[in-house]
Amino acid sequence: MAVRAAVLGATAVALSVALAGPAPAAEPAGKDHAATRAALRAAVQDGVPGVTATVKDGGTTWSTTAGVGNLRTGAPRSADDRYRVGSITKAFVSTVLLQLEAEGRLSLDDTVEKWLPGVVQGNGNDGTHITVRQLLNHTSGIFNYTADDDFGTAYFTKDGFFQHRYDTKSAADLVAIAMSHKPDFAPGTSWNYSNTNYVLAGMVVQKVTGRSYATEIRDRIINPLHLKATSLPGTKVTVPSPSSHAYSKLADETTGPTYDVTKLNPSIASSAGEMISDSADLDRFYGALLGGKLLPAKQLKEMQTTVPAGDSPTTRYGLGISDIKLPCGVHLWGHDGGIHGSSSVVVATPDGRHALAFNFNGDWSGDAGAVVVGEFCGT
């Protein structure tokens, strides 16, 4: 089901499709962000209802919007829009686990079985042979629950979504779906993006600390960094204001009716992708993370130790973040994230000083890679 590539299954590897190819002549990106603005407008021309983006570059901040945030009223998008960030949540979860490692409360080489006894078992799944590190870099081999056919029918088709959009799913429910499938491969022998890995990671946080991953993220990241637009909604179905509406085709096709999918219960994403934020907060988070303000040097190095991300020639995967090489030779760290009607990206230079975050409020079109290249390559 192609729509799943845009909701809950997103990873910065998707950017490699647009970023691959012959390298253009490198040009300075400049300070007018003209190429970035042009790429965002092109996304709207391609069918995305509206876009919002914010760049932080050293001590300067620049924001822009295009298109609309409400197809019915024509109200524009805002630079302050809050939106569902999907898989960008994973870097927050990974950061918490790495902080716990720095505190001596766990090791990334601990087995999943140590912390979650009996949870990963059946159909060839065996938590005694899977490490926390393998959850975080997607080398566990555990099946991606969002790829389950019944789950797809219930949450990614028109009839299923409108029947089930307010369902509450526990982390245990989502893991159980994955455990009904055989592993994709033996742990550590390959790579496959699996949201189940980060649902389990959130469960590990709970077991180690006695508190939910949401509480740990708030206390360890959101509050210290004053990320006022960032939240973990749990089962709340609305997005706080200011925000725009989110739209989807709820189908494999990029044509046909467009549906308002703004309201949904994000428990179906759990610690793999439930968060809400805005572009400025995402820039600030990546700046602090890469700038060494959230992790000791040892743990940041672990986060940035990467493995091949499938067949992508331009992207490697670390622990909740991706290493991305642009055609002009610029190196970035980042991630993208999708959930119904919302496609988001955050990327930053290795020192965290130059960061870009943006959101499309539609999940069926738009070239995210072109926006990133525009900002950092100037073409």
Keywords:
379 residues; alpha+beta; eight-stranded antiparallel sheet; two-stranded antiparallel sheet; 13 helices; 16% strand; disordered N terminus
Question: Can you give a write-up of this model?
Answer:
It is built from 13 helices and 14 strands. The strands form four sheets. An eight-stranded antiparallel β-sheet has the order 2-1-14-13-12-11-10-9, with helices on both faces. The protein is 31% helix and 16% strand. Strand 4 and strand 5 form a beta hairpin. Helix 6 crosses helix 7 (158-164) and helix 8 (171-179) crosses helix 9. The chain has helices at 15-19, 34-45, 89-102, 112-115, 132-136, 149-156, 158-164, 171-179, 195-209, 213-222, 279-290, 297-303, 368-377; strands spanning 50-57, 60-67, 83-84, 121-122, 125-126, 247-248, 259-260, 276-277, 307-308, 315-317, 322-325, 331-339, 342-348, 354-360. By secondary structure, it is α+β, with helices and mostly antiparallel strands. Residues 1-10 and 22-28 have low confidence and may be disordered.
Could you write a compact summary of the structure shown?
With 379 residues, the protein is an alpha+beta fold. 31% of the residues lie in helices and 16% in strands. It contains 13 helices and 14 strands.
Helices, by number, come to 13
Using the alpha-carbon principal axes, give the shape: globular
Mean pLDDT: 93
The share of residues in extended strands comes to 15-25%
Number of strand segments: 14
Classify the secondary structure makeup into a structural class. Answer: alpha+beta
Unreliable segments of 5+ consecutive residues: 1-10, 22-28
What separation lies between the terminal Cα atoms? 33 Å
What's the gyration radius in Å? 19 Å
Strand adjacency order, main sheet: 2-1-14-13-12-11-10-9
| Largest sheet features | 8 strands, antiparallel
* Percent range of helical residues: 25-40%
Order of helices and strands: HHEEEHHEEHHHHHHEEEHHEEEEEEH
